[in-house]
Amino acid sequence: MGANWLQAIWRALRLAVLGASGLLLLCTHLLAAAIDEEEKATGGASWVVSYMLVLLCIVLGMICVLHPSGRRERARPEQYGD
Length: 82
Prior knowledge:
mainly alpha; 3 helices
C-alpha cells in the first residue's frame, strides 16, 4: 500500500510542477511587459528574473529528458546479421 500511495503523490507532484511551468511559459510575455514597465520606472536593468526563467526552463527540460522510464524489464539488445 505504501508504494502505490507514494507513486500517486509523485505523479500528482510531477503534474503540478509541469502544469505550473507550462503556465509560467505561457505568461512570459506578461512577465516581460511587467519587467519593461519596472525598468522604465527605476531606470535600471532587471536581468535577474530573465536569468531565473531561463534557468527554470533548462532545469525542467533536463528533468523531462532524463526522466527514467517505467520499464520493468530491460530492453533486449538488437542482433544484427541473423
